[in-house]
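PROTEIN ENTRY
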Amino acid sequence: MRIGLAGVGRIGAGHAETLRGLAEVEEVVVADADPGRAREVAAKLGAVSVDAVDALFTAGLDGLVVATPTAAHADLVIRAVDAGLPVFVEKPVAADLDATVRTLAAVRHAGVPVQVGFQRRFDPGHVAARDAVRSGRLGWVHTVRSCTLDPAPPPDEYIPTSGGLFRDCSVHDFDAVRFVTGRDVAEVSAAGANRGSAVFAASDDVATGSAVLTLDDGTLAVVSATRYNAAGYDVRLEVLGSLDGVVAGLDDRTPLSPASGGFRPAGPPHTRFQERFADAYEAELRAFAAMVASGGPSPCPPEESLEAFYVAEACEIARRERRAVTIDEVRG
């Protein structure tokens, strides 16, 4: 099959390399707002480059991967499904809630499958945690704890357009909580703090945040995020039940140092999300290629992305207004 890739920046270049390594993908066609960068990536990987993203739609593709900046996601998804092309799109589907809803309406009308890039759904630890919940061996779940702790902030110029910590970063945790538990979020409370660069406060954002989610069966989920975890990149999810508990993301590279002896990671900590989720990124693109080949359903449809976006929006309101917010309130 012939797969197009729009955007070869930090994530897109990694996707190009993964796609080029899939046996079922015969050719990868890349495009970027910077044609020179597209040519450079294509030359390195033995892929094909075109000089503009628009040219992808006349390149005889079987599917399209969208890894452009967020502002371009919705338009490219809609153009692709209108052309009958299955799409893989990095989160978020669109820059805001209204645009997300409009994009989903277009996807439903076209009837073309779209997969959203929530890679934790393909992480072996998160999948195993979900299996443990589904099997019943944990008993009834009472607490979930999920964290995304970045070792350092992104570039200052990214922060004003990021959407904020809950939408940009914790949205992965919100989706993971829903994926692992199989439950919806009913209500949230959230708080944030700034003790780092002034750019966060200037952008009405926070560098550290925490949210408490009440799920629809009464389970409590605690989500934590920060841009300043110098120990290393740390993503873990714990599920605690009446009979047992499990944790995803605890291994030889987890950046934890015991205060008084005991377990100590044997390897160097992860420094980037690409390292921590290398297997998951490959698995999600394998799933996309299988979806394109079979015409089957999406393993992560945009409706799931919308639910996580609702939770992120509710957390942002809760942080700003210092009150509990129901998901129904955000849905309107």
Q: What stands out?
A: The mean pLDDT is 96. Residues 121-272+308-331 form a domain with the Dihydrodipicolinate Reductase; domain 2 fold (CATH 3.30.360.10).
